[in-house]
Design goal:
Structural class: mainly alpha
Radius of gyration: 14 Å
Shape: elongated
Strand content: under 5%
Order of helices and strands: HHHH
Length: 71
């Protein structure tokens, strides 16, 4: 298979991060929940949540699993 350049992989990662953030935003909106409340549930600071939502900090698998349990 052809190898992927680092630039292409970085672009794909950035796209995946943006999709994750968008999905989290949509779920929070649908459930009438706030990013601050999710941050508290995850045990992270509000600025960290903001950075995750803006794609500056990656979502960990643990964050995603915990977020899926947030009601």
């Amino acid at each position: 298979p052809p190898s992927r350049s680092k630039k292409n992989v970085d672009t794909e990662v950035q796209y995946a991060e943006s999709v994750i953030a968008w999905n989290v935003k949509m779920l929070l909106t649908a459930q009438n929940k706030s990013q601050s409340a999710l941050a508290a549930f995850l045990g992270i600071q509000r600025p960290t949540m903001t950075n995750k939502m803006k794609g500056r900090i990656a979502w960990s698998v643990a964050d995603l699993v915990k977020s899926g349990r947030y009601r």
